[in-house]
């Protein structure tokens, strides 16, 4: 009990100062920034304006949305006012009774703005309308109608695309808070639990990992965020997962694993970040999404396994208890992978016999040198 209280006290009051810097947060966001980017390179973002608008935050997107419509309405309002002013349709010019204006019932800038709004959004109240008197007004009407359709299509499409982005579907895929290391099938494995909170499946799911750490090459070059592939599997493989219930994925710690030379005592002193990726296709929209999370050494528990989470009710239904989703149970585990494999090799050698090729059996004649 005192051990847990001491651990909680250290984590609560000193955990923030000892927290490691991570590239990928627990919810999948990347902690990286780009510096000294040339001004010409920044212009590339405006060339791909569609992706740039989609990546904007909602507050900036809504600002652009409102500005685009209000700006276009006001700009064309000024143009309609200019047409009425040039044609002398305004009341201050005191037109004759038989004067035919370019646009009926435009008496000032306010009425010109209202006519611009009615034209672009196709309200059509019927009080203001274009006459056949001016070719300029007809051309301006056609131009505003076409430009209004383009603005509506772009802005509405951008909002719809942002709402339906598969990144939101990734929010309903959750990983366990910690990774654990224990024996599974007689092998030492690193295990992670992942769950789909929706009943709709992810088609063609594929899971894999990357181990990020700083390494030094034999030539003396220091590589920050050097990546090493980590293969994760379930009992049926690592592709086309049947993701209907929470799965426990595992990485076998063998001689080819970067965790092979780590031990329970040295794991907290290691400096690495394990990033786990899950790729799949959303069943309802056929859009590809990626879910990612990361684990630092403090979040890898040696000698633990996950508590059971799936049970069967009396009615014959399978029930998933998410209360135990990240709950772990302490189990007997070798304190290093090398110890486990050395122990298995020693047991195998005890069961086998070895021939000595230099051993020669020779007969010895016993003589009795003692005389009675």
UniProtKB/TrEMBL annotation:
GO terms for biological process: potassium ion import across plasma membrane; regulation of monoatomic ion transmembrane transport. It is a multi-pass membrane protein. Residues 24-166 form the Potassium channel inwardly rectifying transmembrane domain. It holds the Pfam family IRK_C. Gene3D superfamilies: 1.10.287.70, G protein-activated inward rectifier potassium channel 1. It catalyses: K(+)(in) = K(+)(out). The chain crosses the membrane at residues 64-86, 137-161. One of its GO terms (cellular component) is monoatomic ion channel complex. GO terms for molecular function: ATP-activated inward rectifier potassium channel activity. Residues 173-344 form the Inward rectifier potassium channel C-terminal domain. Keywords: Cell membrane, Ion channel, Ion transport, Membrane, Potassium, Potassium transport, Transmembrane, Transmembrane helix, Transport, Voltage-gated channel. The record marks 152 as: Role in the control of polyamine-mediated channel gating and in the blocking by intracellular magnesium. It is found in: Cell membrane; Membrane. Belongs to the inward rectifier-type potassium channel (TC 1.A.2.1) family. This is ATP-sensitive inward rectifier potassium channel 1 isoform X2. The gene is KCNJ1.
